[in-house]
Specification:
Helix content: under 10%
Largest sheet: 7 strands, mixed
Radius of gyration: 14 Å
Strand content: over 45%
Number of helices: 0
Shape: globular
Number of strands: 11
Length: about 120
């Protein structure tokens, strides 16, 4: 029942940068791993990056490796996705996902990222 809110999306030209944020809104918050996914129009929802709170372990989809950086702020229970060298194919709705300590998942409503050529 934890709510997640994504922010930071927008319109940017190819080669530009955006920084997305994912913050919980519930009174209680439990998290083991937080992940970013994205979904382009008429395509499946794809994994982008993950962040494990225990040790800061990160994973990235091959398509964004070297361009995107995921990080977490323990004080705010907030995860960020720094996106650099953006490409038109990065366009889509970006969703934040939380996997809590019980293995239960939660999703945000998504934030639109549009990269123009």
């Amino acid at each position: 029942q934890v709510q997640l809110v994504e922010s930071g999306g927008g319109l940017v030209q190819a080669g530009g940068s955006l920084r997305l944020s994912c913050a919980p809104t519930g009174r209680t918050f439990s998290s083991y791993v937080m992940r970013w996914f994205r979904q382009a129009p008429e395509k499946e929802r794809d994994f982008v990056a993950s962040f494990r709170w225990r040790d800061g372990r990160t994973y990235y989809a091959h398509s964004v490796k070297g361009r995107f950086t995921i990080s977490g702020d323990n004080a705010k229970n907030t995860v960020y996705l720094q996106m650099d060298s953006l490409k038109p194919e990065d366009t889509g709705v970006y969703y934040c996902n939380n996997e809590d300590l019980n293995g239960q998942g939660s999703w945000g409503q998504g934030t639109q990222v549009t990269v123009s050529s």
